[in-house]
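Troubleshooting log. The previous structure file for this entry was overwritten by mistake, so regenerating from the original sequence record. Sequence copied from the archived sheet and checked twice against the printout by T.R.
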Amino acid sequence: MVSGETLIGDVGGKSAVILDDLIGTGTTLGRAVAACHDHGASEIRAAASHGLFVGNAREVIDDTRLMQLVVTDTVPPFRLDPQIVHDKLTVVDAAGLFAAALRCMHEGGSITSLMEG
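Regenerated output below.
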């Protein structure tokens, strides 16, 4: 966990995976990448539910210390250079999960069950 510039946990010599709900300008992701790198992570990957990629996000995503970023297709990465998208980004289709959640709600089921299997 990153709070300010402080990293909580030992990533030295390990693969670090950064999870975030959303990447706007990439400021939080950039701080997390720097903290993991400064504490000796052997590789750094990240994932976020939504990638808005505004402001200076391009520079954060293009940082050579970040090996890969996974986001859903809820917001197309049209603000990023196509080469960065090709080299670093993995875009995951979220439509099936949204459809299943709507079906569960419509039928009076629990969407929690979607995360259990």
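The beta strands are 2-3, 6-7, 15-23, 43-51, 66-72, 89-92. Archived copy saved in two places this time.
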